[in-house]
Each structure stands twice: as C-alpha cells, then as structure tokens.
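Problem 12. The chain below contains 196 residues. Write out its predicted structure in token notation.
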Amino acid sequence: MSKIVPTDEQKKKALNDAWYETRQFVNCITEYFPEHIRANENLEQPYHTIQYALLESWLLHERTLIDFFDTDLGTRKHDDVLAADYDFPVTSWNGSTHNKDSLNKKLSHLTYTRQNYGVQAWDWAKTIPVLERCKEFVDYLFTTMYLPVDNSIIRRQWSTLNNDIEKLLNELKREMSRKQQSELLVSFFHPATTAG
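Solution.
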C-alpha cells in the first residue's frame, strides 16, 4: 500500500477522528484520575474492571495521539492522519511521554517482550506533555482553514474540548505539585527512604 497524500477535504474530514481521539483521551483521564490518583493512590489496592478499562483506553488514545504528533510526513505509515498534514510542527518528546514500545507491548500486542516490563504503575505525569500538545494543536487549528468558519457546532465542539484540556492540565499539574511537595517532605524527614 502506498503512502497517501491527503487532499484538503480529506484533512478536514479527518479532523473528526482527531477530535474523537482527543475527546476520548481527555474523558478517560477525567474519569480515571480522581478514582485512581486521589482515592486509590496506594497501588496495592485491587483495581476494578472499570478502572482497568479506563486506564487502557486512556493509554491507547494517548498512543494514537503520540503517533499523530510525532510522525513526520516522510515516515507516514500508509494512510495515517498526522498533525503534520495540517502544517503543525512534529513533536520530539525526548522521553517525556510514555514509551511507544512499552505502550505497544503492554497494551496493544500480546507478546513475550511484555514480560520484560514487569509489573509497574503507569506514570500519569507522562501524560501531561501529550495533553499540552493537544491544547497547542487545538489552539493552532483555530488559526487555520481546516476548522470551518461557517460551522459553529464544530467550532464549539473544539472550543469545549480545548477548555476541558486546559482544566484537566491544571488539575494534573496541581496534583503533581502536591505529590512532589509531599515527596520532598518525606525525603526531608526520612532521608533513608529516598536513598538509591
């Protein structure tokens, strides 16, 4: 299968899928975050099926968005929709997000390599750069021809999504700051607990 060179019309239609991926990503985190981070911060407590489903859905949407943002036109796989199609700069994550290989092996494929990752909690703070990139992309879309000027419903959907991303980012950053301050207190009062 050859690589697609999308038309402007295909790009506009594909924004529906980009909106869906981003909306579901935000929804899953919003539903999962208070349950897990606040109520179940102790990872020894058993997960519930719905928590697993939310976490897996969140991470799968995150994986899709990482590809969307970090793949350039020259390395496109077949008919993938890319942020670069909209002249949005390709992202270099530099290890700030979840590792794509880890997401693939632990979530998307049943492999022997999955065993190499062991049992470990997902680092929800690594979601923040992807959310920030989503917000930048939505802000950018409002400056382009790809969001129809004459369709207030679509523009309102993107605007609402953008507001929700901003609220979620603020909440995650507050939680991260609280958690870091708590860890600093623990390391100050119990330095042996942080020794490597």
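Discussion. The helical segments are 8-39, 49-70, 100-108, 114-117, 128-141, 152-189. Students who got a different answer should revisit the alignment rule from Section 12.3.
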